[in-house]
Amino acid sequence: MNYRNRMVSLVLLDSVIVMAAIVVASWVVYPVMGVWSNTTVLVSAIALLIFHHLYAVGFKLYHKVWSYASVNELKAIVYSVTLAVVSTGLIQFIINDFSVYRRALVVTWLLHVTFLGGSRFAWRMFRDRYINKGKDLKRTLIVGAGDAGAMIARQLTNGTSESDLHPVAFVDDDAFKQRMQIFDIPVLGTTQHIGAVVENKQIEHIIIAIPSLRNGQLTDIIARCNETEAKLQILPKIEDIATGKVSVKALRNVDVEDVLGREPVQLDIDAISKYVENNTVMVTGAGGSIGSEICRQLMQFKPSRILLVGHGEFSIYSIDMELRQVFADQETEIIPIIGDVQDRERIFDIVNQYNPCIIYHAAAHKHVPLMEHNPHEAIKNNVMGTRNVAEAADTFGTETFVLVSTDKAVNPANVMGATKRLAEMVVQDLAAKSSTKFVAVRFGNVLGSRGSVIPLFKKQIAKGGPVTVTHPDMTRYFMTIPEASRLVIQAGTLAKGGEIFVLDMGEPVKIVDLAKNLIKLSGYTTDDIPIEFAGIRPGEKMYEELLGDDEVLPGEVYSKIYVGRTKKVDAQSVFDLIEVHDDLTNETLKERLMSIVYHESDVTSNIS
What we know:
Number of helices: 19
CATH topology of the largest domain: Rossmann fold
Oligomer: single chain
Number of strands: 21
Shape: elongated
Radius of gyration: 35 Å
C-alpha cells in the first residue's frame, strides 16, 4: 500500500472508531438517552472526530510503523486520545450549560484507547500467528539473554524481519535469568547446556548475541556450538557496534580469528602518539598484508605525512584510495610511491626527498616453498633490499628503523627464514654504529595474509574440497594482522637500538584443527569437505620453536613483547655473500646461506 492509500485508510478507520466509541459509550452509560440527548451525542461525536485527527497528526500516529510498536507508540495513542476527549469535554461544557457528562467521557476514553490500539496491533498479531507461522523458519537458539539477545529476539519475532530464523530458546550464564521468559521465549540453561538444548529443541541455527565477550570466553562457547550440527552466527564485538544499533543485519559468520582465543592488544596510545603524530613515516611493502595494516594503524595517530612505498602498482593504488576514503577528514598527506627496495638509487632518492622520521620496512618475499626454488630472489629482496633501505635511513638521519621479521629466522630450516635472519644481521650491524635506532620485530604466521593457509582453505572449501594439509601433526603460531601490526608499531616506541623484539604468539595451533574449524564455520562437515594430507613441502618445519627462558631477557618489556638476547654479528660475511650470490648455483647459495646463519653459535644470535 502506497503512502496516500495508507493515510486514507487510517483516517477512515479512525473515524469509524471514534464514532463507535462515543455511540457505544452513550448507550452503555445512558441507555435511555434521557440525560444525554441526541444533539449532544452528535456534537460530541463531531468534536471528538475533529480533535482526534488533529492530535493524531500532532503525535504522528499516521506516520508510525506499527510493526515495531512498543511502549512509545502506546504512549502516543494514550496522549492523543486523552487530549481529544478532554477537548471534547470542553466543548460539552460550553454548549451544555456548563455541564459535562464525565462518566460517558471516561467510558469513551476507555473504548477509544482499546479500539485504536487494537486496530493497530490486530494485523501484526494475525500476521505473526497465521501468515508467518506458515513460513519455513529455522529453529534458533540465542546465546545471551541480555540487551543484545533481547533485541535480536524482538526483531525476529515481530514479523518484520526478512530473516528465516525463529527463536525458540535462550541460554545465559546469569543465574537470575534461568527459567525466565523474554518475548515468550524461555531461558533454558547456561552456555554449558548448549548441546542439550540444541538436541532437545531441534535447533538448526545458533546466534551468539553477547558482544562484550572476551576472546577466551568466546572460544569456549564457539567450541560447544561446534559440537552440534547447528549453523552458527555471531554479533560483532561491542567496539564494532554503535550503541542501540544491534540488528539482525549485523549478524556475521564466525571467523577463524574468533576461535584463536587471543585477547586484544592494549596499546600505549600516548607513547605512540608522541612517536608518530605530526611526523613523516614511511612504510615499505605498503601494499602487502602487513604493510597495508601498519598504514591503517598509523593513520589513527595522525602523522603529518605517510609514504606508501611498494613495487606493485595496483596494491599501492588500493591502499592509497582506502586511506583517502576512510581518513578523508584527516590532514595527513598521503603519498603513494612506486619503488622497488632492490633499486638502491630509487630508495635513497625517496628517503632523501621526504626525510622520514620513522621507517617500517615490511617489504619482503615470505613464501617458504617459493623461496626454496628462488634463493637468488630471496637474497635480492630480503637481504639486499633491507640493506638499501636501512643504509638510506642511516645516511639521511632517520630517527627509527623497524624491520618486520619472522620467527622463521630462528634456527632457520629454509631460504626464506635464513634470508630474514641475514636481514636482521644487517640491521644489527648498523645499530652498533649509527645514530638511527635500528630494531627488528619477529612474529609468526598471521591469519588472512596473502600467503597464509586461510585464503587457500577458503578457496578449496568453495570448490567443494578437498582441503589439503601438509601433515596431521604440523603446528603453527598465529595472530591476526591487526594485532601483529599494532605490536610492530608499539615495539618501535620501545626501541633503543639493536634489539630484536619477539612477539608473544600465544598457544600453538594444529593446522589440521584450523582446517576442521574453517570447514565447520563454513557450514559443512569433514564428510562434506574431506581433508587430505599432501606431505611436508620443501623448507617447512613440523613445529615452530618457542621462546626459551635462557634465550630472552626475563619478563616482558611490554604486554606480549619480549626482547631477545643478541650478540655481536658477523655482518661482513653477509656483505661478502651479496657480492658473489649471482655467480652461485641454487644449491651452493643455500649452503652458503645456512653456513652464515649457523657459523659459530657464539657469534650469531639463535633466538627462538
